Amino acid sequence: MNRKPPELPDQFFKRQDESGDELFYVHPRFETHIDDSTIDNLTAFYREALKPDDRVLDLMSSWISHLPPEVRYQQVSGLGMNEAELARNERLDDYVVHNLNDEPSLPYEDASFDVVTIVVSVQYLTRPFEVFEEIARVLAPGGRCIVAMSHRLFPTKAVYAFQMLSPEDRCRIVAAYMKNTEQFEETESLDRSPPVGDPLWLVRGHLY
Predict the structure, then answer these.
(1) Half-sphere exposure of 142 (CA within 13 A, CB side)
(2) Which residues make Cβ contacts (< 8 Å) with residue 6, sequence separation at least 6?
(3) Would you state the pLDDT for residue 89?
(4) How far is CA 26 from CA 14, 50, 81, 82, 105, in A?
(5) Sheet with 94-97, side-by-side order of all strands
(6) pLDDT at residue 60 in the model
(7) Average pLDDT over the chain, rounded to whole?
(8) How far apart are CA 167 and CA 87, in angstroms?
(9) What is the arithmetic mean of pLDDT over 89-96?
(10) Which of 80, 102, 111, 205 could form a disulfide with 187 if both were Cys (CB 3.0 to 4.6 A apart)?
């Protein structure tokens, strides 16, 4: 069910290129979308925020998950668009190729994970409120959702909201994705940008 608040215009979630995402992601991209110092800051944040016994879902995953290399988590699952990228990701215990814009439902049981992460990809969701309903469903009680954003994007595939809004408002709209599920007890926005490098904005939500 799409529970998008009526005050948000539908145009926010349109894109310049509305062709099938499978065409855009058919070729793997073995590259990083934020620079090394920003990756280091994201990894440092995960080191603080995640626990070794966490079951982690890396949503909209690719060939790298930015998790601390010295920490082994109970489980790391990945869901993404390109099988070659997912197969290259050494942190994933399992993965599935799945287009969330075609089918927002997640192929996992209720309460399967303790943490869901999304790294510099939330701007590509055309049905985000449905996806976040699913995120809340697959998280166990007390689970966390961590969304990492920066200023880079593929302009033809990013929804207009993330091209029109300020960084502060992008954080607010991601927080709205979480709050609209009525399952998150609290959300917070954090700026973990390095002194030099790409910005890093984080939105973290805690499930009841």
Answers:
(1) 3
(2) none
(3) 98
(4) 21, 32, 8, 7, 21
(5) 94-97, 75-80, 55-61, 113-119, 139-149, 201-207, 184-191
(6) 97
(7) 94
(8) 32
(9) 98
(10) 205
The stretch 127-136 carries a mean pLDDT of 97
Residue type, 36: D
Whether 143 maps to a domain, the answer reads yes
5 occurs within a structural domain: no
Q: What do you get for the CA distance between the two ends of the chain, in Å?
A: 21
Evaluate whether 59 touches 117 at the Cβ level (below 8 Å).
yes
56 touches 73 (CB < 8 A): yes
What's the pLDDT tens digit per position in 60-72?
999 999 999 999 9
Q: Dig out the tokens for 116 from the structure.
A: 């869901």
Q: pLDDT for 145-184, tens place per residue? A: 999 999 988 899 999 999 999 999 999 999 999 999 999 9
- How many CB atoms neighbour CB 90 within 10 A? 10
What domain count does the chain have? Answer: 1
Q: Which domain holds residue 133?
A: 17-207
Q: Which of 24-38, 89-103, 110-124 has the lowest mean pLDDT?
A: 24-38
Domain CATH for 26: 3.40.50.150
| pLDDT (mean) for 181-203 | 96
The position carrying tokens 């969330």 is: 100
Residue in the block written with tokens 């060939």? 63
DSSP code per residue over 112-136? -EEEEEEES-GGG-SSHHHHHHHHH
Residue 12 lies in a domain: no
